[in-house]
Amino acid sequence: MSATSIFFSAIAIMLLSTTIAAESSASGGAKPKVTNFMVEACKNASMKNKIYDPNPITQEFCVSTLMLDNRSAEAKDLHSLIHIAIDILKGQVVAANGNVKQMLQDTKNGTATMRALSYCMVDYDRMVSILNICDTMIKEYHGRKGGANDGLLSSELPACVERVDKPFIDCWLGLLAMEAKKLLDENFAVGMSVTLNFCLASTI
Ligand SMILES: *[C@@H]1O[C@H](CO)[C@@H](O)[C@H](O)[C@H]1NC(C)=O
Ligand SMILES: *[C@@H]1O[C@H](CO)[C@@H](O)[C@H](O)[C@H]1NC(C)=O
Ligand SMILES: *[C@@H]1O[C@H](CO)[C@@H](O)[C@H](O)[C@H]1NC(C)=O
Question: Which residues form the signal peptide (predicted)?
Fold first, then answer.
């Protein structure tokens, strides 16, 4: 195991416990519901990790992320669950972008940091725009049994989610250069959620 993957695993575990803690306090201590369907979908999703991914998503990470939205427990099919997962990811990107914007306001004009933050805001906006397209795809997707007029291959959905990789990495590189720890942690959480969305979308 390389130093990088040990580092990332440590962060992933930290994020996982924060996520669970945040969720149990948000629902006033009541335990968020987990359905067998969520667990099964997450089990399938965890088998779709790319072999070279240093931070593969686990079934547990998947379930705890889906638990962030109480609609997950109501989901009866993969389309609804993926729609919810995209919503969760969009929320995380918007929140991360809000903090980039905040830091930008406190940054001197004309500096390299200012430019990197400005690019990052555009990158995050672009991620949301792409995710909106993927979301529309899910709504229009009628499943493999839809027949000749279906118009959408099952591989198109993960390919759509995969398109957010580029803006995500661009922003990550910028933040890495300025060693903005809080923004980097948020960016990492966004990255894990992107992977999760890719894996879930790949199970359709
Ligand atoms: C999980 O995968 C199995 C085997 O491919 C499949 O039969 C099942 O329907 C899948 N479950 C979900 C929730 O996607
Ligand atoms: C989910 O939680 C919100 C408040 O956080 C509540 O208004 C809503 O009714 C809940 N939905 C379900 C399906 O439990
Ligand atoms: C930076 O430049 C923009 C546009 O020229 C200006 O609106 C803003 O007030 C400036 N910010 C600072 C901190 O100087």
Answer: 1-21
